[in-house]
Write a structure and sequence with these properties.
By secondary structure, the chain is an alpha/beta fold. The chain has 16 helices and 23 strands. The protein has helices at 2-35, 78-81, 244-282, 288-296, 300-304, 347-351, 390-401, 433-438, 451-469, 513-518, 532-548, 556-560, 564-577, 588-604, 615-629, 645-648, and strands at residues 54-58, 61-66, 73-74, 89-91, 96-100, 112-114, 119-123, 136-138, 143-147, 160-162, 167-170, 182-184, 189-193, 213-215, 318-319, 330-333, 354-360, 364-370, 376-382, 411-417, 420-426, 484-486, 492-494. A seven-stranded mixed sheet has the order 1-2-4-6-8-10-12, covered by helices on one side. The protein is globular, with a radius of gyration of 29 Å.
Length: 659
């Protein structure tokens, strides 16, 4: 009898789990019916853990769902989503999903939520504040409005909060979560005084920029006297009676007014004369005058960069003023395809901006330009540009400026005046891949990243590089870890692509030795043309840097030759012995993925360009490896900065770049 009872119990448990697992499948299909009208999700078969976007399952339940950049549209029914109650990571970013953000109260295990760059509207979802395991909230680039609720203080484990590029109003809650490391509330309609909590004062002004109503003494934004504190007529003191002394004062005052009026009239005549002379001389000035002005606007070479403009542009390319279409002496903005805020500053604003040198390199210098409004951009001043003719430069930079991809740092604007060439990009405060690997050290030593991070970064870079290569004849030309910046979601974004075409082969290079050894051997001569096969080689060297933490201050390929796999393994074993354990303590599955990534790197660094794979095949191999790895990693998030938290928290900001 007892034995029959046990059999019945196990039978009941089996039926129960089958129903639960079946529930996940039905929930996914319900979600698909909500947001996939074009049937872009290839969800077939009974094993839903192998469906596209299902990155991870735990005990047969969906724990990580990543559906990004798939043109998904429609509204989400919360009843379907809440059945996935074991989900840890949910990412639906860069789609066209609309409506209110659904109620997530059933996702009690959710740790990371990415809904950025969709068409969500309505208010901040109050259900998120009830999820006490939640660490990452990324809602950037939607149409959310209303107040940021004070109940967000109850999310005690909050690590990342990105609400930028929305329409939030009201005051900022007094965020006090000590674990909060990344915050972006910029480009909203927030107002009032920024709470000077110990947590918030650690963030710089860029976290709050482009909210015209915000102020705070702790952030050097003085709060003006509010209307409620102004003196009302009822409180004013009556005028005292007129005396002989006050009569004399009024008489003197009239004389002063008359004298000032006469003096002002004379001064006005002088100013009109000077203005006429200035206008007459301006017509005779060459474009070189504009460039010289930019060099002296804020003192020396760094201030020259502030003649550029930010990554905010109008819809459609446009210039300031009428220049006949040549762009000489003008600030030319590129269309962002709807991904850029409205331009809110001019060339004059940029001329007044303070500039800080970030680095000098092969094709010029890089500056951080901070405008009086607090808006920050990155400006690159090209040196000895190869295209002295205006039209040639414009044609080439137009090609670069049209590129828009989630793994590229977008070129927003350019400026040219005779020999002066300036390029303006978005400012990325999260630093570079070089800093992620090496910290603040400039030596060759660094820490190899965990294999899941290596795969994530490799896919980001391969995706961005393939997008560049899909434009005939276009190359990156200068791929290295310092030219990879970390985006708002810690995605890897390529910068400085296409700039090596501006390099003048007749001028010696001023770049570090490591820059040379990223390049394919056939392209180290500056007179040799850059090729996409050479980019593949640089990509392979960068993979070796990820796997070993070693910057190529020597030629890794020639130095280690066919022993590269043995060298990589020995480096990672040294880290394991030191206690860092980058390979998850020798786990066989992780070793297999590392070997697969190493094989991809070896194919890329073939000395023969014809033997190297094209980026399309490289990306395919990486994605296949990641798909298999999704069943191996049970505690990591491919899309959460918490995956790299130990490294990212110590990242220096505004680190110097070698361009």
């Amino acid at each position: 009898m007892r034995q029959n009872g046990l059999v019945f119990f196990f039978y009941f448990v089996t039926i129960f789990f089958q129903c639960v697992i079946s529930g996940d499948k039905e929930a996914l299909l319900g979600l698909k019916s909500d947001i996939d009208p074009t049937n872009s999700l290839n969800w077939n078969g009974n094993d839903f853990c192998k469906w596209d976007g299902v990155k991870e399952c735990l005990n047969g339940r969906v724990s990580k769902l990543v559906l990004e950049n798939l043109n998904l549209k429609g509204e989400i029914d919360s009843r379907n989503l809440n059945q996935l109650d074991q989900i840890r990571v949910l990412s639906l970013k860069q789609n066209l999903i609309s409506g209110n953000i659904p109620n997530f109260s059933g996702l009690s295990n959710l740790k990371s939520l990415y809904l950025s760059y969709n068409n969500f509207s309505g208010e901040f979802p109050a259900s998120l504040t009830t999820l006490h395991r939640l660490k990452t909230i990324v809602l950037s680039g939607n149409h959310l409005s209303g107040h940021i609720p004070d109940s967000i203080l109850s999310v005690q484990r909050l690590y990342v909060l990105y609400l930028d590029d929305n329409r939030f109003t009201g005051k900022i809650p007094p965020l006090n979560q000590t674990g909060l490391k990344f915050l972006n509330l910029s480009r909203n309609q927030l107002s009032g005084e920024i709470p000077a909590t110990p947590v918030l004062v650690k963030f710089n002004i860029t976290s709050f920029s482009n909210n015209v109503g915000l102020c705070g003494d702790a952030f050097n934004i003085p709060c003006s006297i509010s209307p409620s504190t102004s003196i009302s007529p009822a409180n004013q003191t009556p005028n005292p009676p007129t005396t002989g002394k006050s009569h004399r004062h009024r008489k003197i005052k009239k004389i002063v007014i008359i004298a000032c009026s006469v003096g002002g009239f004379i001064l006005l005549l002088i100013l009109i004369t000077l203005l006429a002379i200035f206008i007459k001389n301006k017509k005779k000035k060459s474009p070189e005058t504009v460039a010289k002005k930019s060099e002296t606007a804020a003192g020396g070479g760094a201030a020259a960069a502030t003649a550029g403009a930010s990554g905010s542009g109008k819809n459609g390319s446009g210039t300031e003023g009428d220049d006949g279409g040549s762009g000489i002496g003008k600030l030319v903005f590129f269309s962002g395809g709807g991904d850029t805020p409205e331009m809110s500053y001019s060339l004059e604003d940029l001329l007044k901006a303070s500039a800080e040198t970030l680095g000098r390199g092969t094709v010029g210098s890089t500056y951080k330009a901070v405008m009086e409004s607090g808006f920050i951009v990155t400006v690159k001043r090209l040196k000895d540009a190869r295209y002295p003719r205006v039209e040639e430069f414009r044609r080439h930079v137009d090609v670069i400026g049209r590129l828009r991809h989630q793994n590229l740092v977008p070129l927003r604007a350019y400026f040219q005046a005779k020999e002066e060439r300036l390029l303006v990009y978005d400012y990325f405060p999260n630093g570079s891949l070089f800093s992620l690997i090496h910290g603040s050290r400039t030596s060759a030593g660094g820490k190899p990243l965990h294999w899941t991070s290596c795969l994530k970064i490799a896919e980001d870079l391969a995706t961005g590089l393939l997008y560049i290569h899909q434009n005939p004849g276009l190359t990156h030309g200068n791929l290295k870890s310092s030219n990879v910046l970390l985006g708002s979601d810690f995605e890897s974004c390529l910068t400085d692509y296409g700039l090596m075409s501006f390099r003048n082969p007749d001028y010696p290079e001023e770049s570090s030795a490591s820059s040379l050894f990223y390049r394919a051997p056939e392209c180290r001569d500056p007179r040799k043309p850059l090729t996409q096969q050479a980019d593949v080689y640089s990509f392979g060297v960068l993979l070796l840097e990820l796997l070993t933490g070693k910057t190529p201050f020597q030629d890794l390929v020639l130095e280690h030759g066919s022993d590269i796999p043995k060298w990589v393994k020995s480096v990672r074993e040294e880290e394991t012995e030191s206690g860092d354990e980058p390979t998850s303590s020798g786990n066989e599955a992780s070793e297999e993925k590392l070997t697969a990534l190493l094989n991809i790197a070896m194919a890329c660094i073939s000395l023969s360009p014809t033997n190297r794979p094209v980026m399309k095949d490289v990306l395919r191999m990486i994605r296949e490896t990641r798909a298999e790895a999704a069943h191996v990693s049970s505690n990591s998030s491919d899309h959460s900065p918490g995956r790299w938290s130990d490294t990212v928290q110590s990242l220096p900001r505004d680190e110097h770049l070698s361009i």
